[in-house]
C-alpha cells in the first residue's frame, strides 16, 4: 500500500496569536461577529462626531459656508485628539487627527486671507466707486487691475497729454483722477474731459482696428491734473485673460465715447452739467447723432466713417453736411441762456 510521506516539521509555520484590541473582550475567530458590545465612549468622542456632523449639514447657500465648515472640522479634530490622548491612550488616532487639524487650519487661514479687507488707494477709490463698483467688480480684482502695471502721473497746467499728428495712440490708456483737460482739433475747442472719465477712449477703440495711428486731436491740461495710466499692450493682454473684466471695459469705454460725442456737439453745457453721468441729450446732440447714423447708413464704406468718428475727425464733416446744424445749435444755446 502507498502511504503519504510525512513532511518535515520546519515547513510548517505557526500563525501568531493576535490578542483582542479591546480589553475585556475575548478573542473570537470570526472578526465580523460581535460577541459583546463595548461600553459607550467618553463624551469628548461624541462631541467630536457632533462637530463633524454639523460641518457636513451646513447649507452651501450660506455665505460663510466654507469658513464654518473648516471651523467645525477643526473643533472635531481637537476633541478627537483630546479623547485619544486623555482617555484612550491611542497613538495612531491622535496622530491622524493632528494631521487633519493642521490641514484644516491651513485651509481656514487661506479662506480668511481671501476675505481680508482690500485697501484701495485713496486716489483710486473715487474711480472705483463711480465706475467699477456699480458693475460689481470686486475690490480684489480692481486692485489687481490697478496694482500690476498701472502708474499715476501728473500734468501741470498747460502741459499736453497728446499732440495731434505726433503722439502715438498705441502706448497707453488713461483715466483722469483730478483736474480738467481740454480737447482741441487744429486749434478749435471740441470738449472738456473731467474726473472719473477716460482721456483717450476713442483712440483706444480705434486702435483695435488700425495699429500705428497718431492722435487726431490735442489734449491739454487746463489745470494741474493727475491721471492713472495703463500700458496698452499689457492691459490688452490682461483683459484677454479675464472675460468679465474685458466686458466691463467694453461697456465703460463705449459709454465714455458716447458722452464725449454728446459733449463734442453741445459746447454750451456748463462744467457742472457736463459732469453728470446720466443726462438727457440736447436737441443739438440728437441731430448730430442722427447725422452720424444717416452718414453711416448712406455710405458703402461704413467702417471708414466709424473710424473717422472714433478718431475724433467727424465733427467738422458732420457740421458741413448740415448747413442749418450750427443755426439750430445757436438757437438752442440762446434759449438755454434765456432760461427757456
The portion of residues forming beta strands comes to: 5-15%
Using the CA coordinates, give the radius of gyration. Answer: 37 Å
Question: From the 3D coordinates, which CATH architecture of the largest domain would you assign?
Answer: Sandwich
| Mean pLDDT across all amino acids | 74
**Strand order in space, largest sheet:** 1-8-3-6
CATH class wording of the largest domain: Mainly Beta
Tally of structural domains: 2
Number of helices: 13
> What is the end-to-end distance?
136 Å
Please describe the biggest sheet, giving its number of strands, its sense, and whether it closes into a barrel. Answer: 4 strands, antiparallel
Number of strands: 8
CATH superfamily of the largest domain: Jelly Rolls
CATH topology-level fold name of the largest domain: Jelly Rolls
Poorly predicted runs: 11-15, 277-303, 309-330, 332-337
Helix content: 40-55%
Helix/strand class: alpha+beta
Order of helices and strands: HHHHHEEEEEEHEEHHHHHHH
Shape: rod-shaped
Describe the structure.
By secondary structure, this protein is of the alpha+beta class. It folds into two domains: 40-116; 122-276 and 300-335, Jelly Rolls. It contains 13 helices and eight strands. The chain has helices at 43-57, 65-88, 91-114, 122-132, 139-147, 201-207, 232-240, 243-264, 271-274, 283-298, 302-310, 314-321, 325-337; strands at 150-155, 160-162, 172-178, 181-185, 188-193, 197-198, 218-221, 225-231. The strands form two sheets. It has a four-stranded antiparallel beta sheet with strand order 1-8-3-6. Helix 2 packs antiparallel against helix 3 (91-114), helix 8 packs across helix 10 and helix 10 (283-298) packs antiparallel against helix 13. The longest helix is centred in the first third of the chain and has 24 residues, at 65-88.
Amino acid at each position: 500500500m502507498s502511504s503519504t510521506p510525512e513532511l518535515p516539521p520546519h515547513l510548517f509555520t505557526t500563525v501568531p496569536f493576535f490578542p483582542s484590541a479591546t480589553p475585556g473582550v475575548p478573542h473570537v475567530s470570526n472578526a465580523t461577529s460581535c460577541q459583546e458590545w463595548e461600553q459607550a465612549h467618553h463624551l469628548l468622542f461624541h462631541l467630536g462626531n457632533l462637530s463633524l456632523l454639523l460641518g457636513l449639514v451646513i447649507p452651501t447657500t450660506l455665505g460663510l459656508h466654507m469658513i464654518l465648515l473648516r471651523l467645525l472640522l477643526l473643533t472635531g479634530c481637537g476633541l478627537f485628539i483630546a479623547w485619544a490622548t486623555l482617555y484612550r491612550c491611542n497613538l495612531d488616532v491622535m496622530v491622524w487627527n493632528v494631521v487633519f487639524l493642521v490641514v484644516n487650519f491651513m485651509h481656514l487661514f487661506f479662506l480668511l486671507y481671501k476675505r481680508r479687507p482690500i485697501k484701495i488707494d485713496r486716489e483710486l477709490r473715487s474711480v472705483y466707486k463711480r465706475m467699477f463698483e456699480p458693475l460689481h467688480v470686486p475690490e480684489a480684482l480692481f486692485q489687481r487691475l490697478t496694482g500690476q502695471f498701472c502708474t499715476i502721473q501728473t500734468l501741470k497746467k498747460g502741459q499736453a497729454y497728446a499732440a495731434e499728428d505726433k503722439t502715438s495712440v498705441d502706448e497707453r490708456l488713461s483715466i483722469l483722477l483730478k483736474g480738467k483737460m481740454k480737447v482741441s482739433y487744429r486749434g478749435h475747442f471740441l470738449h472738456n474731459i473731467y474726473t472719473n472719465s477716460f482721456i483717450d477712449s476713442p483712440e483706444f477703440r480705434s486702435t483695435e482696428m488700425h495699429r500705428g495711428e497718431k492722435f487726431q486731436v490735442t489734449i491739454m491740461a487746463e489745470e494741474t491734473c493727475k491721471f492713472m495710466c495703463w500700458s496698452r499692450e499689457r492691459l490688452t493682454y490682461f483683459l484677454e485673460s479675464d472675460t468679465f473684466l474685458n466686458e466691463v471695459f467694453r461697456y465703460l469705454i463705449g459709454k465714455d465715447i458716447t458722452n464725449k460725442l454728446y459733449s463734442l456737439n453741445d459746447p454750451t453745457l456748463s462744467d457742472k452739467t457736463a459732469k453728470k453721468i446720466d443726462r438727457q441729450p440736447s436737441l443739438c446732440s440728437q441731430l448730430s447723432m442722427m447725422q452720424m447714423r444717416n452718414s453711416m447708413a448712406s455710405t458703402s464704406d461704413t467702417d471708414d466713417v466709424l473710424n473717422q468718428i472714433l478718431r475724433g475727425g467727424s465733427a467738422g464733416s458732420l457740421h458741413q453736411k448740415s448747413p442749418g446744424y450750427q443755426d439750430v445749435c445757436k438757437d438752442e444755446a440762446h434759449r438755454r441762456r434765456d432760461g427757456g
